[in-house]
């Protein structure tokens, strides 16, 4: 870098951000103020995520359910539901063979090959290596523990990945397949995160309609982008009774602004209003487990613990200090699961 230039553009923004105090950052000291803060922040987040542009999309789910496939101890069924007029998302439903009504787990994926990753479906060796690297097959772990599992594709991943990247006429990279969609959404007043919340809320609607799902017993969990999806869905929809967020702990200011992260994390103007700990605090007093890898490439352990302490502060004001915990495991940016299943067994009633 030319020494006459001084600070880089991103460094300048980091310094600028460090002087800011989010307008709706958590400041409540009692239960009444907490509820007032939660209502105000939820309303602002829906605005920032683009829900106003999506509100006209209410429509019937019109589920289409394929024949179930025998997978040994459970069955797997491909389902599509309509989440917007003329637009459908696919999901895999993993159902235990024993029992009639089940507690539900929404198993959300991050970057990679979509719902197939969390369900352990690989077409080749490279996909299996990727699933092993992220320890991705938590949908299978859940169904083997007796939960009915719903694993949808995010927009721009799996079956919903754009076939070609029109900008370069090359096959879209599986890791950054969401960038084109993210930029398109922002131009239309929406966000990738907001669209995922919208779709996942329609999955919750589908769970509500099923006779084999126990009403009011839904957990959301995932790693990386799946942790992101669990965070935002849990923050904005109280039908999520328990959340496990892995590989996504750490402030936006000390992660996205410090690393070349994916644009799918972008919510325009978010840091003017709130930090990630504030968003996570909207889950309180519902049980929340966080997973933190010691060598996470995206989030330093220092940043993760700092964010965790801020979330703990919100849970203390909510009178729910026993409903938040963290799995500090040794490892990189991946799913741990060491505490997750005991956490669900304890709290998902």
Can you offer a commentary on this structure?
This protein has 13 helices and 10 strands. Strands 1, 2, 3, 4, 5, 6, 7, 8, 9 and 10 form a 10-stranded mixed sheet that branches. Helix 8 crosses helix 9. The protein has 349 residues and is α/β, with parallel strands linked by helices. Helix 12 links the parallel strand 9 and strand 10. It has a single domain, classed as 3-Layer(aba) Sandwich (Rossmann fold), CATH 3.40.50.
Oligomer: single chain
Rounded to the nearest angstrom, the distance between the terminal CA atoms is 57 Å
CATH fold group:
Rossmann fold
Average pLDDT reading: 92
Q: Which second-level CATH architecture applies?
A: 3-Layer(aba) Sandwich
Sheet with most strands: 10 strands, mixed
Provide the CATH top-level class.
Alpha Beta
Shape: globular
Radius of gyration: 20 Å
Residue ranges: pLDDT <50 for 5 or more in a row? 164-172
N-to-C SSE series? HHHEEEEEHHHEHHEHEHHEHEH
Q: Structural class, please?
A: alpha/beta
Give the beta-strand count. 10
SSE layout and pairing:
Blueprint: H1 9-18, H2 31-49, H3 51-54, E1 64-65, E2 69-70, E3 74-84, E4 87-96, E5 102-108, H4 115-118, H5 125-134, H6 138-144, E6 148-152, H7 179-187, H8 192-209, E7 213-223, H9 225-236, E8 242-246, H10 270-273, H11 276-281, E9 288-293, H12 301-317, E10 324-329, H13 340-347
Parallel strand pairs: 5-6, 5-7, 7-8, 8-9, 9-10
Antiparallel strand pairs: 1-3, 2-3, 3-4, 4-6
Name some characteristics of this structure.
alpha/beta; ten-stranded mixed β-sheet; Rossmann fold; 19% strand; 349 residues
């Amino acid at each position: 870098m030319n020494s006459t230039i001084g600070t880089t553009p991103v460094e300048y923004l980091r310094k600028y951000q460090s002087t800011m105090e989010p307008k709706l950052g958590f400041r409540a000291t009692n239960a009444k103020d907490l509820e007032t803060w939660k209502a105000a922040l939820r309303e602002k987040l829906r605005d920032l995520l683009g829900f106003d542009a999506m509100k006209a999309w209410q429509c019937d789910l019109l589920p289409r359910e394929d024949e179930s496939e025998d997978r040994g101890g459970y069955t797997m069924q491909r389902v599509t539901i309509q989440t917007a007029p003329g637009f459908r998302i696919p999901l895999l439903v993993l159902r235990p063979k024993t029992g009639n009504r089940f507690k539900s787990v929404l198993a959300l994926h991050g970057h990679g090959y979509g719902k197939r990753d969390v369900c352990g479906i690989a077409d080749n060796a490279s996909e299996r290596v990727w699933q092993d690297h992220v320890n991705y097959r938590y949908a299978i772990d859940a169904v083997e523990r007796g939960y009915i599992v719903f694993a949808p594709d995010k927009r721009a991943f799996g079956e919903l990945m754009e076939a070609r990247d029109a900008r370069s006429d090359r096959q879209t990279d599986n890791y950054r397949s969401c960038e084109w969609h993210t930029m398109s959404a922002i131009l239309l007043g929406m966000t990738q995160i907001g669209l995922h919340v919208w779709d996942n809320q329609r999955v919750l609607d589908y769970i509500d309609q099923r006779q084999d799902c126990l009403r009011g017993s839904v957990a959301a969990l995932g790693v990386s982008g799946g942790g992101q999806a669990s965070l935002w869905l849990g923050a904005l929809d109280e039908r999520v009774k328990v959340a496990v967020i892995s590989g996504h702990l750490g402030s936006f200011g000390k992660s996205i602004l410090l690393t070349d992260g994916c644009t799918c994390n972008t919510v325009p103007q978010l840091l003017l209003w709130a930090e990630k700990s504030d968003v996570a605090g909207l889950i309180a007093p519902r049980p929340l487990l966080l997973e933190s890898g010691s060598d996470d490439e995206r989030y330093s352990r220092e940043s993760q613990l700092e964010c965790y302490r801020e979330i703990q502060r919100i849970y203390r004001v909510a009178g729910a200090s026993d409903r938040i915990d963290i799995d500090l495991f040794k490892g990189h940016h991946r799913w741990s699961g060491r505490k997750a299943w005991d956490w669900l067994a304890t709290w998902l009633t």
